[in-house]
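Extended Data, panel c. Modelled sequence:
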Amino acid sequence: MTVEAIEDDKISIKVAEKEEEEVYEEIQPPTKRRRLESEEPLDSWKPPSVTTITNPTQFTTTTYHSQIPSLIASDLKAEVTLGVDEAGRGPVLGPMVYGIAYCLKEYQPKLKEYGFADSKVLKDEKRQSLFKQMEDLSHELYENVGWATTTMTAKDISSGMLQSTAGTGAYNLNEQAHDTTIELIKQVLAKGVNVTEVFVDTVGPPITYQNKLKSLFPGIDIVVTKKADSIYPIVSTASVVAKVTRDLNIQYYNESLPILQNHALGSGYPSDPNTSKWLNSNVDPVFGWCFGFIRYSWQTAKDSLVKNNAVEVIYEDQVKKRDNGYQDVGDMFESKTDKSKINRSYYTSTESVSL
């Protein structure tokens, strides 16, 4: 992997953190922060994008698709509009969730009447109410709107971004986001849904991303733009699906895993005082934090490991091999070149971890 590629990936992380930090600060100024989803008394409802996770302690990326809405399934030749948005690109903890929503082209204006908008400007109760209506078998939205999510765990995000440590080259955040979007669209098309137009909230330069998608889906009209979640109701719907799934995913882990219970995790954004406090108060000197829940590739996490005196770990494949075996352990401490505290975290392990 080239130095330029590594630097580009570092920039990608910083941009992701900065963009979402700005949104977080805009909605929740430090002087008057609302309580966060994981700390609010919510009812017991959780969407199937959370409840269908079969083995949560493995922190494996999962995808869930709703049934094809009856009004689309009854006429698979009818033209369908699809929107794409994400939630959780910038936080240091928890997943990034990609959501899609789709409906008949003529139904899209009706979504605005129900109150779908950029999820960041809606209150928690409104977001959840809209999503619950989409899952209510007796509701009009259930008959008209399909949806899907891919919940990309912190473990898998970081594993991809830190692949360069093993010499295979980093799988940066933008590439992961693009591939997830592409796969979700392909999966809906594979179900026989006649998607004729797609609206996407951009990741990276809009024109470059739009041309990439058009080359993969030449028969579909595709628009990639900033603020798509505020412009197109179908993207607003995808935004709600993604945001609620992420928030309740964090709440689920906060309530279910003993290592996280009774902790105020906050939103996951580094500027959130609850997140910062938890991050710096719960550093294991060897393993860092909860398996799979923290993005170790984030600079915030790396800085916290150093700040809190995490031990330096030297791995076997970092040791030079001699003809008569590996070099003496003492030699490793005489000429260290890697100054990082923990340069590979155990979340990449395939072994089962008990929490």
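Confidence is low (pLDDT under 50) at residues 1-6, 20-42, 332-355. This feature is highlighted in the accompanying rendering.
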